[in-house]
Amino acid sequence: MYQAHDSGKQQWPQGWAQWRHDVVPSEAVDGPLAAHFRARQIKALVRMLPLVTAGNAVNVMGISWVFWGRLPHLILALWCFAVVLSLPVAAVWWRRLIRKAPRPVATRGAARLIVAQVVFFAVLWSVLPAMVFPDADHAGSLLIAAVVVGTICGGAFLLSPMVPVAWAFVLTLSVASIVGLARSGVADNHTLLALLVVYAVIMCAVSYASGKVFVSRLRAEAETDRQKQLIDLLLRDFEEHASDWLWEVSPTGHLRHVSGRLSESFGLPAKQLLQQSFTELLALMVPPDDDEATEALNRLTTCLRMGQPFRDLEIPVEVAHEIHWWSLSAKPLFDDKGRAAGWRGVGSDITHTRQARDELARLANYDALTGLANRHRFSTELERLKAAPDAEPRPCALLFLDLDNFKHINDSLGHSVGDQLLRRVGGRLKTILAEGDLLARLGGDEFALLTWRYTSPKKSGALAERLLNLLSEPIQLDDVLVEVRASIGVALAPRDGRDPQSLLQCADLALYAAKAAGRNTFRFFDIGLADSARARVRLQNELGQALAAEQFQLYFQPQMHLDSGEVIGFEALVRWQHSERGLIGPGEFIPVAEETGQIVPLGNWVLREACLAAAKWPEALRVAVNLSAVQFRSSAVLDLVDEALYISGLAPERLELEITESALIEDHDGAQATLMALRARGVRVAMDDFGTGYSSLAYLRRFPLDKLKIDGMFVRSLDSDQDAQAVVTAIITLAQALRLDITAEGVETAEQLVMLRALGCGDVQGFLISRPMPAQEVAAYLERTNMSLA
Ligand code: C2E
Ligand code: CA
Ligand code: CA
Description:
Elements: H1 11-23, H2 27-30, H3 33-67, H4 73-97, E1 99-100, E2 104-105, H5 108-132, H6 138-158, H7 163-183, H8 189-240, E3 244-249, E4 255-256, H9 260-266, H10 270-275, H11 278-285, H12 291-306, E5 310-319, E6 322-334, E7 340-349, H13 351-365, H14 375-382, E8 396-403, H15 406-413, H16 415-430, E9 438-443, E10 446-451, H17 457-472, E11 475-477, E12 480-482, E13 486-493, H18 500-516, E14 522-524, H19 527-546, E15 552-561, E16 567-578, E17 582-584, H20 586-596, H21 599-614, E18 622-626, H22 629-633, H23 637-648, E19 655-659, H24 661-665, H25 668-681, E20 684-690, H26 697-702, E21 707-710, H27 712-716, H28 722-737, E22 741-744, H29 750-759, E23 763-764, E24 773-774, H30 775-789
Parallel strand pairs: 13-14, 16-18, 18-19, 19-20, 20-21, 21-22, 22-23
Antiparallel strand pairs: 1-2, 3-4, 3-7, 5-6, 6-7, 8-10, 8-13, 9-10, 11-12, 15-16, 15-23, 15-24, 16-17
The structure holds ligand C2E and calcium ion (CA) (2 copies).
One calcium ion binds next to loops.
């Protein structure tokens, strides 16, 4: 508010302006407050007026007593009247000059008017020293001198709140006195004159000093007022901000000035808050056995003890059986002598922020469907392997678990059942977690378990076994009972890998091996897996060129009618004549070709070659060709069949396509349409590997088929396993009921043949009859069998 003026080169005007500013409020310096200051000054004068009036009345009485008879009565009376009355008039008038805006104000004109009126009043008094004094007798002049000196003195003091007014009064009276003194013949009036001048100057200085104090007090008050308003404003704003509270502790650590907000936040009455130290209170409130709380409390205690300021220290507290999070900030206080005087700070309830933050962290780290950790969290946890690059990594086991039949369940029962299944599987797996273990869903039906407990091959193997057992129990979802199976790959650190990346790869390869081993089992990683993975990659690359290089060959395995012993046809089985590795079986490269899509051109080649070969056989013989699910689902399949038949000239009835159940399950309607179209052409369709998949009666009824092929797995254990017998019996009965042909595959022994005949099986295929043979050997074989069978 109050501006400092630089005291510069222009000494006089600058200095004068400074003087003036010190005692005269002005808009330039005080802004709008100047008007208020003026009003306060006028009020100060008005307040003194009764006293002045009384003093004047006494003086006037004295004067008129002494001079009654020496001066004309009328003039004396008028003078007395004017002097005494002018003061109450001034009081009323001056009060009127103050306007009551929100707070009292007065204009600059009002101040000037008061100067003028005071000059007038001084002139009234000046009559005494200037006119009466020179002719007065000894007693009279003494009285006048005393009264005038007293009046100057009193005026200088009483009018000092408005320095110009005080000066005008003092100077007018002083000048009048000098004039009177000059006119009188008082002896040695030079000395008196000098005294009078000095006296007037001193009075002016005195009134200046006191006026300056008055004005600076006004200014100081205004500044304090302004600051108070500002603080009030800030505090109110702060208080309205619902979650914050101020706190202050004494050097002994006890709370001071406990506000309503503070006691509300603590959930304790103010009296109780004052009894214990701040840290004791918090220690009672933090939830027990909470590491974060203990750590925060320790930090707080340390900061308080060491006198270190702190910011945003987050601490959990229990208020009314609910956990709240507070954020505390504070600074130490010091007294005038620099001694510690306690602490002052702010506390805010950040429970909501904290919850939001936790929720965000949860979302970033957890899988929404199962509530298990997600891939991100899993990777972060796995990174701990890398913690100390030089140190020996902490042993751990990584288990990758993949559901074998999830895709089928998801496709056939719908995604909501699929989701439910994943949730239930997650729930089951969770039940065997040891402390510190991390179970995550990495996506789809893929789960991972990272354990720091079961780290030996023996223990982790047992763990994998337990996981498989856990899942083997059927799961009831809505109104279906689902059997879920899984494959597990296990990798151990540091044995198999020392860093997260290689460990992941190892577990992945082990999982692949478990799947390849027939699923529903687990495999450890071993170095051979890495080799075969590399081999697989190489195979993929070589497969691409194999077709163009004409490296594929078809072998044919005869199918025989069991009763008559006649060959009824051959199944075409593809082989790869590899330039370095020799003959490779389809079991090795077909799955790779299916993965990469290379099965489509390869399958077409097989179809065409098989038809071309069969066209040369006796007309009664059929050729069976295996179709992968990928091929069967492609829209071109019908065209390709037509083309193969057309090129070879083979009658459609002599072509039998072998498909597996997986070809049918994903796209019911499309599959059905394709089957119908094939049947319409007269092409036969056989269901391959029957009994190993998801065989259901519903499929068999729905899809128009010609034949079931009993998987070799059942045939092989026919003579040893009762269950296998039951399955084969059931399949044969089913086929008969549905009027489907039936072929038993993989017949290797005479005992199996006998049993199959007894069970009523129609056709057989297997090493017992013949191994698959190259196309050029078929003719000779036929000749031999016809001869031998004939
Ligand atoms: P698959 O369709 O079940 O074919 C029968 C498999 O059993 C053949 O194996 C055959 O050699 C073998 N086998 C036949 N009799 C016996 C026996 O008495 N004992 C034993 N242990 N095995 C016997 P291969 O040729 O290795 O073919 C394996 C699988 O590869 C086939 O199983 C079939 O699913 C697939 N495959 C073969 N050729 C093709 C093809 O051209 N296209 C497609 N998509 N898949 C093919
Ligand atoms: Ca087959
Ligand atoms: Ca088969």
